[in-house]
Amino acid sequence: MAKDLSFSCTECGAAHSKWSGRCEACGAWNSIVEDKPLTAGPKAKSLGGKRGRTIPLTDLATEEAAPPRTRAGVEELDRVLGGGLVAASAILVGGDPGIGKSTLLLQAAARFARNGLKVIYVTGEESTAQVQMRARRLGLDQSPVHLAAETNLRDILTTLEAENPDLVIIDSIQTMWADNVESAPGSVSQVRAAAHQLTTFAKTRNIAVILVGHVTKEGAIAGPRVVEHMVDCVLYFEGERGHQFRILRAVKNRFGPADEIGVFEMTGKGLAEVKNPSALFLSERGTPAPGSVVFAGIEGTRPLLCEIQALVSPAAPGQSRRSVVGWDGGRLNMILAVLESRCGISFTGLDVYLNVAGGLRISEPAADLAVACALVSAREDAALPETCVIFGEISLSGALRPVAQTENRLKEAQKLGFTSAILPVLTKRGGGAGLEMREMRDLAGVIEAVFGI
Ligand code: TYD
Ligand code: MG
Prior knowledge:
Layout: E1 7-9, E2 15-16, E3 32-34, E4 69-70, H1 75-80, E5 85-86, E6 90-95, H2 101-114, E7 119-123, H3 128-137, E8 146-149, H4 153-163, E9 167-171, H5 188-205, E10 208-214, E11 233-238, E12 245-253, E13 261-267, E14 270-273, H6 277-282, E15 292-299, E16 302-314, E17 322-325, H7 329-343, E18 350-356, H8 368-380, E19 388-390, E20 393-394, E21 400-401, H9 406-415, E22 420-424, E23 436-440, H10 443-451
Parallel strand pairs: 6-10, 6-11, 7-8, 7-9, 9-10, 15-19, 17-18, 19-22, 22-23
Antiparallel strand pairs: 1-2, 1-3, 4-5, 11-12, 12-13, 13-14, 15-16, 16-18, 20-21
The chain binds thymidine-5'-diphosphate and magnesium ion.
Thymidine-5'-diphosphate binds near residues 98, 134 and 137.
């Protein structure tokens, strides 16, 4: 008999056979809740379903291979979608509450509607009057977007069936309620059922559907990860509340590259595209200070320069702190270990703080060298030249490894007025003409050349 999996995690959707305080799959605490089953299926002896149809692959028309796309005309959004909106696709837009998802999607809805799509924006959180108020603030109140304030899934699907739109936006999936599932809206079973019905509907009726999902902190409401595997495209809208930058990041995309980002700025009139994110992320940089390094990174297909800041201070006896914002904590510990073992620079007895400026989050190992230089610069209280960019991966032996897209990184640095670059030895020439190139073999060499230790 199949194992009875009647509990699931509201964070990651993993199924469990019993309740426990911590999800073994994702490590979240207090996130496991009991599932309410769907109404039982038929208990007939035969399989019972109706016979479907199979199509030989070779009989499919070739144009079906490349799905048609509609561009929003917002370059930052179209790029993240992989070149525009694909018909009959399901997209999840996740993010913290208040980060600007509704604003982004209302603006996108208006753009798509202007480009000839029939768009229905279903709001389960606000009244139509509230959405209209926001539209007025964004200068979009004359857009041909249809609104519906509804949470009952059956009613929504009936409406969609009758209206036959090209794009539906569901804001948010956690407020939707399927009446054949016995649990409360927002529970894992409800969110799963609603997402499943909406994505199936999208596929069969050739409609694109965008689901909004709030990232949740407490376990009572299922987070967007529960539906990630059901949709074609998963976008996360990120940013720090205190900063005006917002980043839309594709973490999964069946129709385009993942890891692509779009950069926006939250203004009094909604989200504005940021065409030159490097300039924006470096705009807050003051005079050269110890601990500050400019990293030439790549996000998706695009170069992005940003500032990495480190601070080192004496620790209280026996408890040195390691605190990271915008980068991986494990990676920081690795860099500290390499600095200690391979370069003889110890951070014992010191608190270490690392921050990626502007609320950006970096996951590239190419940032290793920039982080190491920021740490040593902070420890030695020695500022780096203002016009130097740094990148390169550090291996455990302390050697520098070349990184992808060196040429793009160098070009971007040059475009923004940088004059020198510290980087791993190039295996292939190209890019960087006009920059003073300091190609290095290992971390110890860089530390010696830059800080003289
Ligand atoms: P919202 O789109 O409601 O966030 P979400 O749907 O992700 O919960 O955006 C909320 C925040 O955005 C709110 O704090 C106000 C701010 N905002 C602006 O700064 N400018 C604007 O033009 C709009 C519409 C919102
Ligand atoms: Mg909202």
